[in-house]
Design a protein that fits this description.
Layout: E1 5-14, E2 17-22, E3 36-38, H1 45-57, E4 61-74, E5 79-90, E6 107-111, H2 126-131, E7 137-143
Length: 146
């Protein structure tokens, strides 16, 4: 098995709705997640997250506290990822136009707390972390599904 990949993700709430993305090519999966991606060396975790959110959504964000550490893996492919999920807020112009400059994301949605359980999403404890008052959560290793 390869070493775990480190990634960062942004929990962006706007009008109490959470931004989710789907990056599976050809819309082959209905799995939703937060915008973000792999960490590049030489940049802080927040700097990586600002870059990744801009690449996937075209949005500028400010990053605040981490709210969840999530792990997942696919033992069949030897894949293991550790994600640190941060609270983030839109910065600059409030006019929200979602775009995908890097052509990675194929769909966007803003989900309320009541809508989120009806969407297949990872990590499983996302709603608890985003809308809860706990400082930070750890979501133990879970198997990834495509």
């Amino acid at each position: 098995m390869k070493p775990p990949r480190l990634a960062v993700r942004a929990a962006i709430l706007q009008d109490d709705r959470l931004l989710l993305v789907n990056a599976y090519p050809g819309q082959q999966s209905d799995l939703w997640c937060l915008p973000g991606g792999g960490v590049e060396p030489g940049q802080s975790l927040p700097e990586n997250l600002i870059r990744e959110v801009a690449e996937e959504t075209g949005l500028a964000v400010t990053v605040s506290a981490p709210i969840l550490v999530n792990e997942f893996h696919d033992p069949d492919r030897g894949y293991h990822q550790v994600e640190i999920i941060f609270r983030a807020a839109l910065s600059g112009d409030i006019g929200i136009v979602l775009e995908d400059p890097e052509k990675v994301v194929n769909r966007f949605t803003w989900a309320s707390r009541t809508e989120l359980p009806r969407l297949r999403h990872k990590p499983a404890m996302l709603a608890r972390a985003v809308w809860g008052q706990h400082a930070a959560w750890y979501d133990p290793l879970e198997r990834i599904v495509g």
